[in-house]
Specification:
With 423 residues, this protein is α+β, with helices and mostly antiparallel strands. The protein is built from 14 helices and 23 strands. A hairpin with a 3-residue loop joins strand 10 and strand 11. Helix 1 runs parallel beside helix 11 and helix 7 packs across helix 10. It is globular and about 55 Å long. The structure holds adenosine monophosphate and glycine.
Length: 423
């Protein structure tokens, strides 16, 4: 098979790494890719949002399957264009993608189809949003409506901080993502990321993990796109997984199909396990980053048949995926300053070292410098991942490798997996 994989982050490097192991693969082309992906596949300098150029590339390489990594490609409508061209695509059409691209849409969707989520108000301007705070208790949750790379959420302990956050959003801190604001009820509980595949009709659970959204140890600091993950995560008991499947996953796929946009791809359910059962925090229309990295390490089955089955309506023919009976950890290395302004261009040394068979390093936001050195971008640059017989061993191996990487301008959390280890 010829496969075109769209995206350039650690998630896509992990997908490329796993796809590359498939005996079904003839040719893997990644656009735009990154230096990690360039080492294992062909890369083409086509933007992840340039739908006409991606369609042309899919045709040029006679792609049997196009795999969409990031949300921006979903929002740009690549799946729509590929459907018209008759090219199988893993990744939903833009209408279904609103489950991620608009928090206001998703809240209305939950109401229409009875999915449990927090109480909320959608607000069109700052005055309305500030007035809405009176309907909630602290901590206040203030969210920009659109895509903001995991950074458009502020949890404010008091009204003054919430009001400042509202002003920031409407002042354009998150660009067009902040044209509207959603204020919502704060949910108490433990958070988790669950993944489910769908081919438009049939759905299948596809693993779970726990992310660490805050920038610093002890869950301090601002929200990020995710600073590290581990899988499996003990919050996901069999009972909880079953509840998520029946209350969130199946109603979501059924609801979005009933609204005329059958879902083909992976749905990422970010949920809070509350006293009243699982409640939706948000949907994402793609694999999580860095959740995908730990899932790919643990996935024993060939990934490609699952991706193809989603794209071609044959998921009902597939058995449940097989997972390694091991734990996986991913530690994110980011440029100092992230998720705020950070200086791109520092050099990372030693990322391609030999860390042993249980450690895998994925390149995220980094590019290749003039002499082939790895240059960090202004955000999450590297994902150091490891498998172990238990979480402690996986974590030791991952941090052992992190210690061998020479990058003075980078930082990472040192407590990935703490919730599970402190149980
Ligand atoms: P999101 O971008 O919606 O995933 O939100 C970022 C992070 O903010 C989540 O991972 C949670 O840790 C936290 N969060 C978002 N919404 C809520 C909520 N309603 N209650 C409590 N925490 C929340
Ligand atoms: N790690 C969370 C996300 O991908 O949005």
């Amino acid at each position: 098979m010829n496969i075109l994989l769209v995206g350039s982050g650690g998630r896509e490097h992990a997908l490329a790494w796993k796809i590359k192991q498939s005996p079904l693969l003839a040719r893997l082309v990644c656009a735009p890719g990154n230096p990690g992906m360039a080492a294992i596949a062909e890369i083409r300098d086509v933007k992840a949002t340039d739908v006409p150029a991606l369609l042309a590339l899919a045709r040029e390489i006679a792609a049997d399957l196009v795999v969409i990594g990031p949300e921006v490609t979903v929002e740009a409508g690549l799946a729509d264009a590929l459907a018209e061209a008759g090219i199988p695509c893993f990744g939903p059409i833009a209408q279904a993608g609103q489950l991620e691209s608009s928090k206001a849409f998703t809240k209305g969707f939950c109401d229409r189809h009875g999915l449990p989520t927090s109480q909320y108000r959608v607000c069109e301007d700052a005055a309305q949003a500030k007035a809405a705070l009176a309907h909630f208790e602290p901590p206040y949750v203030v969210k920009a409506d659109g895509l903001a790379a995991g950074k458009g959420v502020v949890i404010a302990m008091d009204a003054a901080t919430a009001e400042a956050a509202i002003d920031d959003v409407f002042a354009g801190a998150f660009g067009t993502a902040g044209a509207r604001v959603v204020i919502e009820e704060y949910l108490e509980g433990e958070i988790g990321s669950l993944f489910a595949l769908c081919d438009g009709k049939t759905s299948m659970l596809f693993g779970w993990a726990q992310d660490h959204k805050r920038a610093f140890d002890g869950d301090e600091g601002p929200n990020t796109g995710g600073m590290g993950t581990y899988s499996p995560a003990p919050v996901f008991t069999l009972d909880l997984v079953d509840q998520i499947d029946h209350r969130l996953v199946r109603p979501a796929f059924k609801g979005i199909a009933a609204e005329g946009a059958p879902y083909r791809g992976v749905l990422f359910v970010e949920m809070m396990a509350t006293r009243h059962g699982p409640k939706l925090i948000e949907f994402n229309c793609r694999f999580g980053d860095p959740e995908c990295q730990v899932l790919m390490l643990r996935l024993e089955s060939d990934l490609v048949p699952y991706l193809l089955a989603c794209a071609t309506g044959r998921l009902h023919e597939m058995p449940a995926p097989k997972w390694r009976n091991q734990d996986a950890v991913c530690v994110v290395l980011a440029t100092e300053g992230y998720p705020g302004p950070a200086k791109a261009g520092s050099v990372i040394r030693g990322a391609d070292g030999d860390f042993g068979p249980d450690v895998t390093v994925f390149v995220a936001g980094a590019s290749s410098g003039p002499d082939g050195e790895l240059q960090a971008g202004a955000g999450r640059a590297l994902n150091v991942c490891a498998l172990g017989e238990d979480l402690g061993q996986a974590r030791e191996r991952a941090y052992g490798a992190v210690a061998l990487i020479d990058w003075p301008q980078g930082f990472h959390r040192t407590d990935i997996g703490w919730r599970a280890l402190s149980r």
